Amino acid sequence: MKVLFVCSGNRGVSPIVKAQADSLIQIGISVDIFPIIGRGMLGYLKAIPKLNKHVIDTAPDIVHAHYSLCGIVSALSTRRTIVTSLMGSDVIQSGAMRWIIRFFIKHRWIKTIVKSTDMKERIDVTQLVVLPNGVNFELFKPLSKIDCKHKIGWDANRRQILFAADPNRTEKNYPLAKQACALCKVPDIELKVVHGIPQSDLPFYLNAADAVLLPSLWEGSPNIVKEAMACNVPLIATDVGDVRMLFGTIEGYYIAGQTAESLCSSMTELLEDTVVPNGRDRLKELKIDSVSIAEELNSIYLGLRD
Length: 306
Fold this sequence. Notes:
Elements: E1 2-8, H1 15-26, E2 30-36, H2 40-45, H3 48-58, E3 62-66, H4 68-77, E4 82-85, H5 95-107, E5 111-114, H6 117-123, E6 129-130, H7 145-152, E7 159-163, H8 174-183, E8 189-193, H9 202-208, E9 211-214, H10 223-230, E10 235-238, H11 243-247, E11 253-256, H12 260-272, H13 279-286, H14 290-305
Parallel strand pairs: 1-2, 1-3, 3-4, 4-5, 5-6, 7-8, 7-9, 9-10, 10-11
Helix pairs in contact: 1-14, 3-4, 7-9, 8-12, 10-13
């Protein structure tokens, strides 16, 4: 089977999209990636002629678009079978854009995938499949905290809280992370902001961290949560996306309110706790490894060809 991924290429192909492509290739599917370079609706619409030519030249069985704008452009470029994955921010669209997304879900995209039940409820359209992104267990695994701190140059005598996102992205809520850490009275605590690094380096930062902090305003199925859990690293997160489902009742994972006081309280409790969390086994139980998700996605593709 030949699948064409259509995604944004403004900052290069997203590691999330690349990881899903790699997982499909691992189970024997041919995956090509077409990155769209352009800003806003007009910028994306300008890509239609190039995408149309690429589809004609490569003749994929399935066109799988990632994010709503890519799905819209794909539907306007070809009559081939189109699957669209909505990734998180799509669900907060309002006004005309929300109407357009719902139109394409009902009438143009053969299958629409969302990353969490929360996303499905927010969009409130029945023709949706919930399928989160999987995590690569070979890349994200427990490593020595001391060795990782040394490797990336963090002070082993301090306690680092990792904020692994672009602080300029509104939904990631970096100001709240700063406020919470400033309130926290745990000695030698420091907030570390990490983003834009190679995916292959991220496991070292996760394993070096004493905790990961996710104070987001909204999410779909946040990959950093699953990646940290695969490394058995503790987390504090707001109740967004599928975080509560991912955490289950496993110790070392805290749901906090969207206030600095609540996040600080959870952070203090976590850092005083001596339990070693076992998020990795929780993800195995949920079958959210990259291969299991790739096989589910392949089943969706095959169902569309029958």
